[in-house]
Prior knowledge:
Strand order of the largest sheet: 1-9-8-2-5-3-4
Structural class: alpha/beta
Largest sheet: 7 strands, mixed
Helix content: 40-55%
Order of helices and strands: HHHHEHEHEHEHEEEHEEH
Number of strands: 9
Strand content: 15-25%
Amino acid sequence: MSRPPPSAAAAASWARQAERSSVPVMRFMVWLSLTLGRQLSRTVLHGIAAYFLLFSPKAGRASRAYLQRILGRPPRLAERYRHILTFATSIHDRVYFLNGRFDLFDVEVHGLEHVEAHMATGRGTLLFGAHLGSFEVLRAVGHRHATQRVCMLMHAENARKINQVLAAINPAASQDILPLGQLDSMLQLRDRLDSGQLVGVLADRNPGESGVRNLPFLGSPAPFPNGPFRLAALLQRPVLFMSGTWQGGRRYRVELSPLADFTGVEPRERAAAIARAQESYAALLENHCRRAPYNWFNFFDFWSDPRARSDRPAP
């Protein structure tokens, strides 16, 4: 096996360290949050944000670089702090969303008619999100519309890690995680879609070896994974872009918009359809980042993935 590039090795090391520390910390935060309530337990977030601002230099450099791109100037200290605090808020609020405490939030939903139009056909829909805001806020939409069950599709290793966290927050939520890489993964995914479920995918990272494609993003080419788009094309499913951004206080904004529809796409047309979907995804993500800049949570150099080798569309 070849040795991973330095940046990939660093990312793997960071992931292992985060895995060791996240579960006990999460368990404590769950207890604290459910005991004290959202308003009181939020006071801890300010200390956490200040700590990471001061003592996490790699994440801090990535945050500064991203904010400079999005703001068009070097970010002020208060803006860097706000970026980390927004991330901490999304993690904290996950506790309440996963425990069904939707009453604590004011969730504004735009584009639900696109979901309803697809669901009316009796087939499920893929929702392509990103590490932007909170995907868990979508559970509030499913809560309002009981027939719309939401599950997450992710790489098997990531699924294992997130299930550890979910076990600390609410063990019942682990059934909503569908791991890739198992013998029956595709069958499970197809069955869930055929039963009318919404299946979410974070399509801005490349956990496997499916390759990436460089696309314009915030002023420079950035690598976007091919895998999610190939999967949607193979299954011939409609895809919506989804974001759920924190707007301050108890307010979240969920936006759903058409991204692609691979229904009936012929094999000879697949590559072009995937290329168009990838380009639309990158453009939509950039638009949402500009509208909610502090909700972007990729705390690494997103623009220098060593696996980014080609600008060609995915085959």
